[in-house]
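Quick entry, no commentary yet.
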Amino acid sequence: MKGNSIQIISMFFVFILGAAVTQAGATVIIVDDSGGGNYSSIQKAVDNAQNGDTILVSPGVYQENIKVDKELTIISHSILSGDQANCIRVIGAIPNNDVFYINSNNVTIDGFYILGCQSGTDRPEAGIYLEGVQGCSLSNNILILNGPGIVLNNSQGNHLDSNFISLGEEGIALDSSEENVLSNNMVVTNRQGILLDNSVNNILVNNTADSNTIGVFLGMSHGNKLAYNHILKNEYGIFGQAAEHNTLIDNGMYLNGVGVYLNESSDNAIYRNEFINLFNAVDRGNNTWNSSSEGNFWNDHTGRDVDGNGVADTPYPINQTAGSMDYMPQVNETLSSNNSENAAEKMSALIALLNKGYSMSSGNAREKGTVIETTRLEQINSSLQEGPVFLRIGAEWCPLCKAMNPTIQDLAEEYGGKAAIMLVDADRSPEFRTYFGVLHIPDFSVIVDIENGEYVYMKADGNVSKDIDQARLVGIMDKGVLEKVLDLSLLRERQEKSG
């Protein structure tokens, strides 16, 4: 249970006393299949509970299908007592029904062994099914022989942590769901390990997908972040179908038939991952396989690193016909060599970077008068496919930045439809300040292209450079100077299109 220590200690003493008591207006209800509690059925306890109550389930076997339509905490005694060997089994009683069906917000299910109905050949729909809910927590559960183990349908802002799911159709399935966090889950020997269908802005961190047909499936799903996941021994490690603007960083793809397969999928960013597979990657779209400074480790890349900077001197081809290349392939394995302390620090920093939503309206950045706040490099990369990007890095508290705001808006009116006008708040997105080497704000630059994984900037003299220090403009700037750089970038664009 994710509560404070006082609540946990109080609940534990409640169980020892074997009685229901009231704390701060919420009741703790004891369920014991041997008759020693308030109820012998979990469903009976749910039916008689009120919002905010806690249902504490004693060790035993409960054969029932449970509908949770109230804001409840349902927790196993084994979680509170630390006696993980004395598990609480919940077995579905009705074929083709979910074992737990939840249609209320703020429900916690913690510490259960959940099995599908074992009568006949049918399986229940799901071990745990969330329908149109928010703020639910599912943790420390074992789900075996269900259809899908856990399903989130049209659900937002839920947390799934440290669950084990096996021998089902899908381990975890998200359908039209957004801003959920999946962490430390293990999905083993299912048809699909983790399925995201039409789902946006979810975070998957430190999950294991092992020995499934597909480890992680991204179907028409946008803006999801996958980091520090272990994806191994699947036929397909990650399979993307019509998936866009997803980010894959610091994942390990090991011993899969195909590490990553992207079909009709574009604008995904894949870097700092390890690929050690039978076949590492297939890209049948338009995706980015490196940042401006680092790519992925590929076990079959034969490129040398003559200058010893950790990056191979030749790119790693993924789909040469379509131009898919990792221009910054790493020559050393980085994930497996991290000690736990460094890995934890990296994970915390990365999640801070990734915990930003993908805006479905970001495609309107070029409309006249539109100024868009940028939180992801992929927004810049996507806009560069249509033309130059004017980038200002500043902060709300900065008086010089405030003084320049009317000028920025004028540029958006003047250059809308021709260039993207983008702002970065250095306080909300400090990683941008580090990435672009910003020392003073406001900081202005115009990005015109990406070459070999590096941004190309327009200089005020009409030349271009990959060195931003030669192109950046800082402080209070005359509008005419900014217009000049934008005009030069648009002239370069016209000249390139005309050949």
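second:
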Amino acid sequence: MKFKRLISCGLIGIMAASLLAGCGSGSGDSGETATTEDGKIQIEYWYSGGKTAVDVLTNMIEEFNESQDTYEVVGTTQADYTETYEKLQAGIAGDNAPDVALIDVDKARNLSDKNLIADINPYVEADSEFDREDYLDVFYDQGLDEDGKLFAFPAYGTTQVLYYNIAAFEEAGIDPASIKTWQDLAAAAEKMTSSDGSFVGWEPMWGYKNLVDAVFSNGGSLLSEDGTEVLINSEEWVEVWESFRQWIHDDGIMKIHSGGQGWEYWYNTIDDVLQNKAGGYTGSSGDQADLDFSIVAAMEQPGWGENPSYPTAEVLQNVMLEGSTDEEKQGVYEFMKFMTSPEKQAEWSMETGYVAVRQSTQDVEKFKTYTEENPQALVPFQQATHASILPEDPTGGKIYDALEIACDQVEIENVPAQEALDEAQATAQAALDEVNGN
């Protein structure tokens, strides 16, 4: 499942929603440890994901329960990460929250800022088997705040890579290894695009995050070092966004699918490549479960010009609810630890295509054999080792909202990048100034 934007709701809405949210039966703030009929400590877990991911997580819960006699995790699936978050807030307000939930970084940080989720540091510090160095920094560090609180534990990662049509590249005489920059990819797209428009060279996935990846690979930044200035209309940003506008609208060598119901645009993009209508697309590591690798192959995102590749890598996180008892929290930690064991991370990556959060996953024999036969599975992992973190939006999402509007202007409406980004910068700067008290 790909990431969706946080839909925030006010406290009144949260309290009202708590009556209808269908929350689980966690201990909340009762102070009593929940137990099963046979005396096990019961751990309520809320999670979501695509069908494959949910199936894998459900199996993992069963395996954890069978692996020991102290805890029993009871899982409840939600529609998506936004629904999980909304019901989580309602559950907290109604003293009926779960003990652990799977959410994305912004949502976890919001809960941590309100002191609603526990610091996991005491648990890792008390665990003699815990190996911090084995966790990829890009994933682990997204659960740390500026004071060093470990407010979330990495569950799995995702990053957007390039999936290319093998036959189209071969017919055009393009060696995938020759794609070192986005400019190289544009040249390849031009070579593959048909004169009648029936075949397009490349399809970037709709949305600003694709463009942000390329910007970071061009040396761009979201904010100034002192956090007072929004930099989204800088030369680095405009160069990248204007190039994509030209490739889509002026040159016709790229196109995007947009709109539709839910993830319709995403699957339309994938279908174009699988149905030999496009040379490739930029998509999620999690797409691998839906792809036919006799038709496509994967490669890392390239750099921009002379700059190295530096795309973002995002992480899904498990959070420990503050309202749980000490015994329940220990059970949550044991489940987090189980879920991120090298063996379980290998299973997760092989089944879903998402990125393992531990280096030693590569040493698991099943994973080594699998990646020898399926080299595309290693591409997202390799990219994550040198990826960047999508910066926190200090305005609570207003900067990224402005970027989303600008992205639609550039990708759909053919508005010049300078114009779109100047407008976005003005909106975002006003929001940042308000936060900073200027």
